[in-house]
Amino acid sequence: MSLKLTSEQLLRLQHETLHLDEQADLFDSLKKRLPDLISSTSLHVVGTLRNDGLGWVSDLKVTGTITLPSTRSLAPVELPVDLNIEELYVLPADLPSQDELEEMDQTVITIEDDLLNLEVAIEDHIILMIPTQIFSEDEIANQTMPAGEGWTVISEDQFAKVAEENAEQPNPEFAKLKDLFKDEDE
Q: Name one Pfam family in it (predicted).
């Protein structure tokens, strides 16, 4: 079975629970949405899709690994993917009112173009799970910062300390300007 189901297929499965155990290679589609993506293993998707009267509820477990560059050194860093996805998919005609949506304790997604594409949902959740800062194990353990000829990266704490030290010292260029207008003050 595929991770893409037409509304016709869903209507045929209305009284059955669909059990999923799929390998999904989403590298190409993820790469379009995450240009920095270096690699992705095939993702293992296990779960069910069932009709609850209002729509179809997906209950999926997705595992695998994606590789992205470190935000500090650009070295490749493997990030484990271990997601639980539970969402409710409804046909446009069955979409609950805004008040009903606010009372629901589930994410409700409208099925568009008569196609329920679970691959897009998986991609969305992978993108949402990526941390804003990605560090290699070495960078975490040693707090190493990249450096080059005449430059070095410093932490925010170090930057704040340097800025505080520099703020306390008067700027010698401004002191020269102050002497420039001495005659006018007298």
A: YceD
- Round the CA-based radius of gyration of the chain to a whole number and report it: 27
Spatial distance between the Cα atoms of 31 and 43, rounded to a whole number of angstroms: 14
Q: What digits encode the pLDDT tens for the residues 131-163?
A: 999 988 887 887 777 778 888 878 788 888 888
Q: How far apart are CA 22 and CA 185, in angstroms?
A: 82
Distance CA 60, CA 122 (A): 9
pLDDT number for residue 183? 64
Between CA 33 and CA 62 the distance in angstroms is: 18
Q: What are the strands, taking DSSP E only, across 91-162?
A: 107-110, 115-117, 147-148, 151-152
Instruction: Give the C-alpha separation, 94 to 54, whole Å.
Output: 7
How many degrees, rounded to 5, is the angle at CA 49 between CA 45 and CA 125?
50
Q: Please give the Cα distance from 149 to 170 (Å, whole number).
A: 29
Beta-bridge partners for 8: none
Distance CA 59, CA 162 (A): 51
* pTM assigned to the model: 0.75
Beta strand pairing call for 107-110 and 76-90:
parallel
